[in-house]
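Folded chain entry
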Amino acid sequence: MRRIENSEISYLQFDGLAEQSALRHGISLRRNGQINFSSRDPEGSRRNREAFCQVLGLPAQHLSRCRQVHSSRVAVVTQPAHLALDTDALVTQVRGIPLMLLGADCPLLLAYDPVRAVLGLCHAGWRGTVQKIARQMIDVMTVQCGSRLEDLHAGIGPGICGRCYEVGPEVAEQAQKNLHQTHHYLHLRNSDSQPKWLFDLAAANRQQLLEAGLPPEQIETSGCCTFEQPDFPSFRREGPQAGRWALLAGMI
């Protein structure tokens, strides 16, 4: 990934997606201890959203967001939606409607079809991952929006990594029941008390994209761990007071 320092917003971009001329995207970074997006500071968050849109050259007045509820629902956005949808994935074919999702440890994914101008974002926490939200987003882009799998490019954003994300047996059971090849990204950690599992959400979602049919060379993974790196707010590290980082993307 590439890091861009701006006077107002510092952010990351996926290397491959940054080469797409009609796509603007960025992953916000915390700077000087500042939380970029927090429900505890709605006015500051609004200013930061507007600044982020301005830096990327996207119209803030058309920014579309949703109430993220750890679901597997995918909404197709045809006009600006300001927190009007209870969903965890947004897809649009409309240029000039930026999409934004927030994360605190859960990976956020971006998928883009430069041929038919289709853009998708999804929030893939463990609940969304075991419900195959990444696969469902790709299905909407291909079946409803006409994208071809060979044209899709995807980026898997920062999130708590597989070394740090410890889950209980109930989560592991759901993953093993609903997902494939879990031995690649779900591992039992030896413990003197209750069994714990390590769950690599980025790898699990990459597997879903591969199973959907995306070419492996067109899937980029950030490799950033929100728990280990102070550039990102982390719920696991900071608790309820943690803010949020943002994935913002739009087509011009």
